[in-house]
């Protein structure tokens, strides 16, 4: 092949873009190719010391030949996380090994969850440190809380769905369990499974903060996971449950090995069943907020979790009528309700956030579903009425899920 020559420069001797962005001793993670990933890696290289990148960086493989904690955690990821799943799911987890399914994020594949690696990058950009508290007022499956905890930052997750509170609490508790608990889970698998099959309603006290039982709660989440899986693929839960539970144990065990080797200090997390429009949190007490509100009515989270919510004893219709994005009939009424609710949520975020700190909102717009109305633009406008200043806006392509949205927007709102 002939070299293409222009201005006396040939393609084969052009330096890689990484050499312009980072010093030679900074090695980025494999498959880091998206523009937003390089942008975040650049911010980390400027905002963090080399030691901090090793300990908490999200986009680097190594510095001066020393592997980062993030690389080591992801490299020890259990292959059980994709065993027995569809080829599409396998490819998603394998390609996103450093961005998606590591630590305890692979437990229960919740629809519409955060991009975990991105959250770690945001925590670094906001300069949050041990001793600070970060909030997700619509925490969903607890991705922020897991990421914050892995780098030693305390967090609070508020969520309307009781099932999401259970899921978030289990994922966080799994960061702290020991190998003895994992062995007990497998030893008692059959007994606990039979108990769950006979149970018609689970008492919320079974998994509440005050009397949380790690073994039973992890088994319960795996059971609920298998229940939803059986519904989607028309297979027996008797067959699916052992596979799912063993996957959970393998995934947790992979993290524990690295946690103990690196002597990670896991941050604390509190989860509160509550409403983003009326946060059970004191004024000016939060050091940072990172959240991803529903993208209008793009996903019906109540209906999506119907089997799990009904098993836990909750009325799905009543819950749906209380959740942001699910109220009303028709596009106009739903959008009016959505923006009214988001306006209240922004007011609450401003109330609990310390002055000068940031609320980062990740939001996408489904133009077809909303009739061309841009959600992120409306949120930006409303935020101005609650003492927020938009300092930066980053576009991130959506990948790994099939829907009509191509991009989501990361809004950095500073409380003025």
Give unreliable regions as ranges: 1-5
Structural class: alpha/beta
Q: Could you give the order of the helices and strands?
A: EEHEHHEEHHHEHEHHHHHEEHHHHEHHEE
Number of helices: 18
Compute the separation of the termini in Å: 58 Å
Q: Numbering strands along the chain, what is their spatial order in the largest sheet? A: 8-7-6-9-10-12-11
Mean pLDDT: 87
CATH topology of the domain at 272-415: Rossmann fold
Extended strand count: 12
Salient structural properties:
416 residues; Rossmann fold; 45% helix; globular; disordered N terminus
Describe this structure in words.
Among the domains are: 180-265; 272-415, Vaccinia Virus protein VP39 (Rossmann fold). 45% of the residues lie in helices and 14% in strands. The protein contains 18 helices and 12 strands. The chain has helices at residues 17-21, 35-47, 50-56, 69-75, 87-95, 116-125, 143-150, 162-173, 179-187, 189-198, 214-233, 237-262, 301-304, 306-311, 316-320, 330-352, 367-370, 375-383; strands spanning 5-6, 9-10, 26-28, 60-63, 66-67, 133-136, 154-159, 269-273, 288-291, 358-364, 388-397, 407-415. The chain has a 7-stranded mixed β-sheet with strand order 8-7-6-9-10-12-11, with helices on both faces. A hairpin with a 2-residue loop joins strand 4 and strand 5 (66-67). The longest helix is centred in the middle third of the chain and has 26 residues, at 237-262. The chain is globular. It starts with a strand and ends with a strand.
């Amino acid at each position: 092949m002939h070299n293409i020559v222009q201005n006396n420069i040939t393609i084969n001797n052009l330096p890689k873009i990484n050499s312009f962005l980072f010093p030679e001793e900074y090695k980025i993670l494999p498959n880091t190719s998206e523009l937003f990933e390089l942008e975040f890696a650049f911010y980390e290289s400027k905002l963090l010391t080399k030691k901090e990148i090793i300990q908490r960086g999200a986009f680097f493989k190594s510095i001066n030949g020393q592997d980062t904690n993030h690389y080591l955690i992801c490299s020890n990821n259990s292959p059980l996380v994709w065993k027995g799943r569809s080829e599409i799911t396998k490819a998603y987890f394998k390609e996103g090994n450093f961005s998606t399914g590591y630590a305890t994020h692979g437990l229960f594949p919740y629809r519409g969850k955060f991009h975990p690696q991105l959250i770690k990058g945001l925590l670094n950009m906001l300069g949050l440190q041990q001793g600070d508290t970060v909030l997700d007022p619509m925490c969903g499956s607890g991705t922020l809380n897991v990421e914050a905890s892995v780098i030693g930052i305390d967090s609070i997750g508020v969520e309307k769905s009781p099932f999401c509170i259970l899921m978030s609490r289990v994922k966080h508790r799994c960061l702290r369990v020991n190998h003895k608990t994992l062995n007990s889970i497998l030893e008692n698998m059959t007994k606990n499974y039979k108990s769950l099959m006979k149970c018609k309603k689970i008492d919320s006290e079974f998994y509440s903060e005050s009397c949380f039982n790690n073994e039973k709660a992890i088994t319960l989440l795996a059971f609920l996971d298998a229940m939803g899986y059986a519904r989607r693929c028309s297979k027996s839960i008797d067959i699916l449950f052992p596979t799912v539970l063993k996957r959970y144990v393998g995934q947790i065990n992979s993290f524990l090995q690295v946690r103990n080797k690196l002597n990670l200090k896991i941050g604390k997390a509190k989860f509160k069943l509550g409403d983003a429009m009326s946060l059970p949190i004191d004024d000016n007490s939060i050091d940072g907020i990172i959240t991803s509100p529903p993208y209008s009515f793009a996903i019906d989270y109540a209906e999506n979790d119907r089997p799990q919510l009904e098993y836990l004893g909750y009325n799905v219709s009543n819950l749906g009528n209380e959740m942001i994005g699910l109220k009303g009939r028709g596009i106009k009424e739903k959008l009016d309700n959505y923006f009214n609710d988001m306006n209240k949520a922004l007011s609450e975020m401003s109330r609990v956030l310390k002055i000068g700190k940031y609320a980062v909102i990740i939001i996408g717009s489904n133009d077809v579903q909303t009739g061309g109305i841009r959600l992120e633009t409306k949120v930006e406008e409303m935020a101005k009425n609650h003492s927020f200043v938009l300092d930066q806006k980053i576009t991130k392509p959506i990948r790994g899920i099939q829907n009509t949205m191509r991009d989501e927007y990361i809004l950095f709102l500073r409380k003025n």
